[in-house]
Design goal:
By secondary structure, this protein is an alpha+beta fold. The chain folds into four domains: 55 residues; 88 residues, no CATH class; 127 residues, Jelly Rolls, CATH 2.60.120; 72 residues, Phage tail protein beta-alpha-beta fold (3-Layer(bab) Sandwich), CATH 3.55.50. Helices cover 33% and strands 30% of the residues. It contains eight helices and 18 strands. The strands form three sheets. Strands 1, 2, 3, 4, 5, 6, 7, 8, 9, 10, 11, 12 and 13 form a 13-stranded mixed sheet that branches. Helix 1 crosses helix 3 and helix 3 packs antiparallel against helix 5. The two termini are 52 Å apart.
Length: 370
């Protein structure tokens, strides 16, 4: 399910396309389909459209002037059959507004000399019209600034190679530690800090900001916090979340039957495994949670871990892969604390402790039963 920020941005994009060149019947059909997808879409679109129309009232003051043209000095109010009037140009650029101000000043100067010879009963009306034009200009400027401020986003992508780690410092004070062979897309906006974990694993030290939730998105799942520390790992369609400080809210999109899946709250020390079968939550010791994150210091820890799983963990950090060449040894239980950059030492210990022999190749280490 899209966030409110994403819906607002989509609505603003539709409005910009609608008022641009080339809007077609096909475009209108697509917009209608988007509006009918959810009530949230219609509400966001109607609210932004109201602001758009409010700013568009200013165009009426420039009737008779082709769009995009700036009239010459004193040219305002020269529309045949219309009384003299003053209005700002249709676009809101600084140069055009300056040109309007100059034209208006010249118009008022000539009107003043004429009024000295013949008093005009329309003077109060003109003042009211000038005040209305000025107020419209202020409203337009405020809406324009607010629109840009609301929708402005900053996007940056980061990735690490196999065997590489990287610390990423965000402008809000948060720090992301990317694990080996990982990729993220960071999107920062006024209302949200969104990190799309596209591949691998990352640890997040989140700076507290109650007005801007910190959202880690992975596929159709989101791990949301305000100020905390937690790790998110993506393995194909599965997700693992480890919380070491604070509380994290784990959300998922609607299930296949359309029903909203329950939200899971993860306190410090929690380890959550999310898959198609649901969310499995375990609350162990903080020490165990920290041990699972030893990769940040260059180590990986095993506790009665099947050899096949241990080999897969080493392969996350090394180009030379450990291959289980005999299925009968895949379930051997291994334990210990190892440097993930030193797979050769791990394999030598296996050969000493288990009926295992290693066949070394250029890109692989194949383990077979001895």
């Amino acid at each position: 399910m899209a966030s409110s920020r994403q819906i607002e941005l989509a609505a603003s994009a539709w409005l910009a396309r609608r008022d641009g060149d080339g809007w077609s019947t096909h475009d209108q059909v697509q917009l209608d389909a988007w509006l009918h997808e959810s009530i949230a879409h219609r509400v966001a679109y109607l609210r932004l459209d109201a602001a758009w129309r409010q700013s568009d009232r200013l165009k009426a003051l420039g009737a008779g002037v082709p769009a995009g043209n700036v009239p010459s000095r004193g040219a305002w109010g020269l529309v045949p059959g219309a009384e003299s009037r003053t209005a700002p140009p249709e676009s809101g650029t600084h140069d055009e507004l300056s040109a309007w101000a100059g034209a208006d000043a010249g118009h008022r100067s000539r009107s003043s000399s004429h009024t000295a010879r013949k008093p005009s009963t329309n003077h109060p009306r003109k003042l009211l019209r000038y005040a209305a034009a000025g107020l419209s200009l202020v409203v337009l400027a405020s809406l324009s600034w607010g629109w840009r401020h609301y929708s402005a986003v900053e996007q940056t992508s980061y990735r690490t190679a196999i065997g590489g780690l990287q610390d990423v410092s965000l402008p809000d004070g948060s720090v992301i530690t990317l694990s080996s062979d990982s990729r993220i897309l960071v999107t920062l906006s006024r209302n949200e800090r969104l990190i799309d974990l596209q591949q691998g694993e990352a640890f997040f030290k989140v700076a507290k900001d109650a007005s801007r939730p910190f959202v880690v998105s992975a596929g159709d799942r989101r791990a949301i916090a305000v100020g905390t520390r937690y790790d998110v790992r993506r393995d194909a369609a599965d997700l693992r979340v480890i919380v070491t400080q604070g509380v994290v809210r784990l959300e998922s999109d609607n299930g296949p039957d359309g029903r909203r899946l329950p939200t899971t709250l993860l306190p410090a020390g929690s380890i959550a495994l999310a898959s198609d079968a649901g969310v499995v939550l375990s609350s162990g010791s903080m020490q165990h949670a920290e041990e699972m994150l030893n990769w940040r210091s260059g180590f990986i820890s095993f506790h009665d871990t099947p050899l096949a799983s241990a080999a897969a963990e080493f392969n996350r950090y090394n180009i030379r892969k450990i291959v289980i060449g005999d299925a009968s040894i895949g379930n051997l239980q291994v334990g210990g604390n190892f440097r993930w950059s030193n797979a050769d030492t791990f394999v030598r210990l296996l050969e000493q402790a288990f009926p295992v022999r290693a066949v070394y190749g250029n890109d692989t280490i194949v383990l077979k039963r001895r």
